Amino acid sequence: MTTTVRRAGAFALVGTGGLLVPAVSRATPQLVAAVAGRVPFTDRLTSQAVATVAGTLPFIAIAVLALYVIDEGFVFELFARPGDREDGRLYGLAGFSLAIAGLALLAMQFALPMTVFSTAVFILSYGNLAEHLVRAWRPDPAVATAGFVAGGSVLGFGAGLATVALTPGSVPPATLAFFAVSGALLASLLRAVLFARDDPLVMVSAALLLWLFADLGVTVSPVRVGVALAVTGIFGYVSYWLDAASIPGMITGVLLGLLTIVLGDYGWFAMLITFFGVGALSSKFRYDEKLDRGVAQENEGARGSGNVLANSLMALVAVVGFAASPTHVPVSPDVFLYAFAGAVAAAMSDTLSSEIGGLFDEPRLITTFERVAPGTDGAVTWQGELAGIAGAGLIAAIAVAFESVQPLGALVIVGAGILGMTADSLLGATVEGRYFGNQVVNFLATVVAAVAGGGVALALGAV
């Protein structure tokens, strides 16, 4: 067994102690009541305080020992990361334990669901262990990432089931599975772009995302979760196999796809996957020629997480808004459908206009119409504009086919996509490179399209 596997196993053992928190939260009130003989208001406060201390103190104690007591010996070598050895302090273990203590405090004092707490802790604890076990067997980054997601999902789901058994209340297994997989995907994505020492941030971020889903009270269908897992898993594998996305880009796409199917609908996913697929193919189209012209995407057209998020984050916001309406947001769910479709149409339009338009000579700057070199920010060609309009039309056609959008609604989506594409070019000619990077400009363009699509739908009574 390698050192990294042993260390991951030791951290997983500490994380397993997180199940003491829901157990303590259930047992403490009865113990206080038995001692007091009654449970007036003051005793309930005492019960809550005792439970909080009992749940958080063990992990605080571990952090104190890691920072000030354990500086050598077997335990130190078991938990030490390379950076820890330089200072003789177990910073990694301390941060990990304090993150668990902080989440326990949120669970006991601020209504973080216990299932969310235990799921997030086990996702990181056992996802990390699974990843290192896989790396010891096959040192392939993609396979190791799959190991993290699979291990974190399975053990996170198991922790959720155990927590339901330990605490009052009930959470459907399908919801627990959705929490576990979406949390594992987010954790895997964050680990791909951060460092090992940022694991506490990863754990807390996963817990906050799951807390949001729990607060929305989303009804999760077992069939839809199963379909989402199968479809997005295949999509992720194919995109990586075709070199259409980097590993972080693949994880981001899979996470977005999962959330779109579960929180939105199959038609929403059809629009999103069409953008990913057609966008990837357009990036690969005549790639060598684009490379010679200086307009090719980096990494041989494989899109990273930043690119995927820049083009899809606004669509994800619309999906969450759809799930939150009308109970949490007093707006018709159909408004968010048009915001989503508008954002995806803009991303599709901009991608096709850039990838196709970049193959033609004599582009003109959109603000002055002067001729500029290919690849200049804000440059457009009539061929690229036509390709962009066709891309927006394709997204609108999918919305008509899958979401029963009427012809007027299709025009709204096409118009939002063209507006977003135009906004991207205008921003490229004015502020890109000076104030913002390409990814920020792409995101702002999708914001313009989403606001336009959703705003017009709202004004027209959701079309």
TrEMBL record:
GO cellular component annotations of the record: membrane
Annotated compartments: Membrane
Membrane topology: Multi-pass membrane protein
Membrane-spanning residues: 50-70, 90-123, 143-167, 174-194, 200-218, 254-281, 308-329, 380-402, 408-428, 440-462
Main location per the UniProt record: membrane
Listed InterPro entries: DUF92_TMEM19
Highest taxon above the source species: Archaea
Alphabetic keyword roster: Membrane, Transmembrane, Transmembrane helix
Family: Belongs to the TMEM19 family.
Protein name: TIGR00297 family protein
